[in-house]
TrEMBL record:
GO molecular function (one): deaminase activity
Names of the cofactor(s): Zn(2+)
Limits of the Formimidoylglutamate deiminase N-terminal domain: 15-50
InterPro entries: Amidohydro-rel, HutF, HutF-like_N, Metal-dep_hydrolase_composite, Metal_Hydrolase, Metallo-dep_hydrolases
Name of protein: 8-oxoguanine deaminase
Residue ranges constituting the Amidohydrolase-related domain according to the UniProt record: 55-436
UniProt-listed Pfam families: Amidohydro_1 (PF01979), HutF_N (PF22429)
UniProt superkingdom: Bacteria
CC annotations in GO: cytosol
Keyword entries, A-Z: Hydrolase, Metal-binding, Zinc
Length: 462
């Protein structure tokens, strides 16, 4: 059965489910027109019920550059071009720029579709795609300004993932309005062109019932103060995402340019509010992260990518204890999965603080605290709700608890075992807007998606 032809009206039954108020047993969820129409607890499984195992709400991936999925594993050799004679973020970025010389619209769509399918297989049901490939490899504008945005929309439709599309404004190579480099030619736009692009993105997603469109000023390096001031108006009701304070060099350069640190400058000069998601925020002072909390903004953490690039560790434990909101994203997509990101987040805190169960609190285990906090942060940063409630979108992730890693577990221990102890593949099924998009751990269209991806890589890597 194809994804498009699947019925969206169905009844699912689970031995347990994580609902907004906590764990429930023997849960039946009715789905009509892609939304949850009924929810019962303490009921027996019916003859027509689908599902099994443990149900969780789907998680929002708050930060993705899907095209970078094809680079995973290809940048791990030491090179001479880093700041200290070895590789660092900036030398990795040079490799990424060279990678962009080869991928056209067809290849980008194929790579994006595989990344989106893998997100669904890993428990993400919505992705905030931070989209900045606007131009052809030569730097020339496409005849359709939204050519690549249309390919991202097509990949979302092919896979069934919910989409928060974030076209990126990128105009400069560094603080103070430096002219862009050759490697950045696929990103560059001006304000008039960007306004056209955001309008095109809204038209492209108009027929997608739960799509969200926001904007993403790339970073303080790539956007002037005047250009940044235009972003909230272009975002409309959508979210606003920005890279900030990812690297120590970025902090040093911002200080040299403005006399302030990146998050400090942003809070003082931009109308940061709950619509904003500050991606990475790795190198922040306590005054800065408390300022983020006061504004009601979200921090978008990408623990696996931040580890892969040697960024550093955000002070998540102190931030969370003070009421800070955060979500997780897969960024460069070197590895994709909810459990993997949450595990890396917790372990990075343990290594930095030399303690255990850092993100747990008095009422919730480590796994449950992490999971519920990224649910809330993702809901805000993605611009769409993702709770298991009547009227909510039927976006459910089912864990296969028949494996030895889940034996004898219940309640919070189910989440702890998935994140810290279960083998890969614990996500058995995923329903998105009522359609089953993952079955037996694999996307229902994976064979075709993967074949197209392999063909694209023959072009990109050839």
């Amino acid at each position: 059965m194809s994804l498009e032809s699947q019925p969206v009206d169905r009844t699912l039954w689970f031995e347990a489910a994580l609902l907004p108020y906590g764990w429930a047993r023997d849960v039946r969820i009715g789905i009509a027109r892609g939304r949850i129409s009924s929810l019962e607890t303490g009921v027996s499984r019916g003859a027509a019920d689908e599902g099994d195992g443990v149900a969780l709400p789907g998680v929002v991936n708050v930060h993705s550059h899907a095209f970078q999925r094809a680079m995973a594993g290809l940048t791990e050799a030491r090179g001479p071009q880093g700041q200290h004679g070895d590789d660092d973020f900036w030398s990795w970025r040079d490799l990424m720029y060279r990678f962009l010389d080869r991928g056209g619209p067809e290849e980008i769509e194929a790579i994006t579709a595989l990344a989106f399918a893998e997100m669904l297989e890993g428990g993400f049901t919505r992705v905030a795609e931070f989209h900045y490939l606007h131009n052809a490899p030569s730097g020339a504008a496409y005849a359709d300004r939204g050519e690549i945005a249309a390919r991202i929309v097509a990949a979302a439709q092919t896979t069934g993932i919910a989409l928060t599309l974030l076209p990126v404004f990128y105009a400069h190579a560094g603080f103070g309005g430096l002219a862009p480099t050759r490697g950045q030619r696929r990103f560059i736009t001006d304000l008039d062109g960007f306004a056209e692009l955001t309008d095109r993105c809204r038209r492209l997603t108009a027929d997608m019932a739960d799509a969200v469109v926001g904007v993403a000023p790339h970073s303080l390096r790539a956007v002037s103060p005047a250009e940044l001031a235009a972003m909230p108006g272009l975002a409309g009701d959508g979210p606003i995402h920005i890279h900030v304070a990812e690297q120590t060099k970025e902090v040093e350069d911002c200080l040299a340019w403005s006399g302030a640190r990146p998050v400090e400058w942003l809070l003082a000069n931009a109308p940061v509010d709950p619509r904003w998601c500050l991606i990475h925020s790795t190198h922040v002072t306590e005054a800065e992260w408390r300022g983020v909390i006061e504004r009601g903004a979200v921090v978008g953490l990408c623990p696996i990518t931040e580890a892969n690039l040697g960024d550093g560790v955000f002070p998540a434990a102190a931030y969370a204890r003070a009421g800070g909101r955060f979500g997780v994203g897969t960024d460069s997509n070197v590895q994709i999965g909810v459990a993997e990101e949450l595990r890396m987040l917790e372990y990075s805190q343990r290594l930095a603080l030399r303690r255990r169960s850092v993100m747990a609190d008095a009422d919730r285990s480590t796994g449950r605290a992490l999971f519920e906090d990224v649910l809330a942060g993702g809901r805000q940063a993605g611009g769409a709700a993702n709770d298991l409630v009547i009227g909510g979108s039927a976006d459910l992730v089912c864990l296969d608890t028949r494996g030895a890693g889940f034996h004898g577990r219940s309640g919070d221990a189910l989440l702890d075992s998935w994140i810290f102890g279960a083998p890969a593949g614990a996500v058995a099924s995923v329903w998105r807007a009522g359609r089953q998009v993952v079955r037996d751990g694999r996307h229902v269209a994976r064979e075709a998606i993967e074949a197209r991806y392999r063909k694209a890589l023959n072009t990109v890597l050839g």
